[in-house]
Amino acid sequence: MKYLFTFLICALILIAVLIPGANLPEVDFTGLDKIVHIGLFGLWALAVYYDFNLKGYKYVIAFLTGLSFSVFTEILQIFVEGRTFDWTDIIADAIGLFLGLVLAGTILRLIKKIFNIDSSKPS
Question: Is the whole model's pTM more than 0.85, yes or no?
Answer without folding.
Answer: yes
